[in-house]
Write a structure and sequence with these properties.
The chain is an alpha/beta fold. The protein has twelve helices and six strands. The protein has a single domain, classed as Uracil-DNA Glycosylase, subunit E (3-Layer(aba) Sandwich), CATH 3.40.470. β5 and β6 form a beta hairpin. α1 packs antiparallel against α5. The protein is globular and about 55 Å long. The two termini are about 20 Å apart. About 5% of the residues have low confidence. The protein binds uracil (URA). Uracil binds next to loops. The site of uracil has 11 residues, from loops.
């Protein structure tokens, strides 16, 4: 199994890839930044929200607005800080006007989430709200039925304890949801104390090297980066601690 340092470097490489992502042409046009995620690249606990809002888009970091402050407050109540966990979203780019993520956008972005899970190797993943819960559970059951009920789930390459939670933005305006979110949050320490679930068998080994003919094919030179392309990421940009 790769060391935490190797996995962190790979995570930075995926972050670099995401910076230039154009899988969703509309979002690639309208975004200011790609909000890949931030936190501890070797965290036992990962949160997955919905999509960046205006504050996140401006700063390039997830959950930095009001919902983020509530998330930090709830974390503090269970003895954790933001830098202890990794926080990401179903979408890495802000949908214009904060509209809901479209199914095609979710499909385009899910590979980044799966690679984050593979590299960070969390024991517990808390989904925040309906979009993350539906994506990670692979079915349409809503958060109202599922919140606070942990289950073992295999998500892409990783098996984790999944804990669906209400989205903090919803809890900001409804007292009863905040109480429920707080109660559900209180389950996190006991889940973290459990052993990590058994992992699925690794995938088949990679395909054999290309044949001689393919290896000799002339190499198409890489296109030069566009003039306003972001410079390669460093740890500070990524927000990794
Ligand atoms: N809401 C989300 O789902 N994600 C963020 O990053 C901020 C608000």
């Amino acid at each position: 199994m790769a060391s935490a340092e190797v996995r962190r470097e790979e995570l930075k490489a995926v972050f670099g890839e995401a910076q230039g992502c154009t899988r969703c042409p509309q979002l690639a046009q309208s975004r200011r930044t790609v909000v890949f995620g931030s936190g501890n690249a070797d965290a036992d606990l990962m949160f997955i929200g919905e999509a960046p809002g205006a504050n996140e888009d401006a700063q390039g970091l997830p959950f930095v607005g009001q919902a983020g402050r509530l998330l930090e407050e709830l974390l503090a109540e269970i003895g954790l800080r933001r830098e202890d966990v990794f926080i990401a979203n179903v979408l890495n780019c802000r949908p214009p006007g904060n509209r809901d993520p479209l199914p095609q956008e979710i499909a385009n972005c899910q590979d980044y989430t799966f690679r984050q899970l593979e590299l960070i190797q969390p024991k517990v993943v808390a989904t925040l709200g309906n979009f993350a819960t539906k994506l990670l559970r692979g079915d349409a059951t809503g958060i109202t039925r599922l919140h606070g009920r942990a289950e073992i789930r295999t998500i892409g390459p990783r098996t984790v304890r999944l804990l669906p939670l209400y989205h903090p933005a919803a809890a900001l305006y409804t007292r009863s949801l905040l109480d429920t979110l707080r109660e559900d949050f209180a389950r996190i320490p006991e889940l973290l104390a459990l052993e990590a679930p058994a992992q699925p068998e690794p995938e088949e080994p990679p395909a054999p090297p290309p044949t001689a003919a393919a290896a000799e094919a002339p190499r198409v030179p890489d296109a030069p980066p566009p003039p306003d392309a972001p410079s390669p990421p460093d740890a500070a940009q990524l927000g990794l601690f």
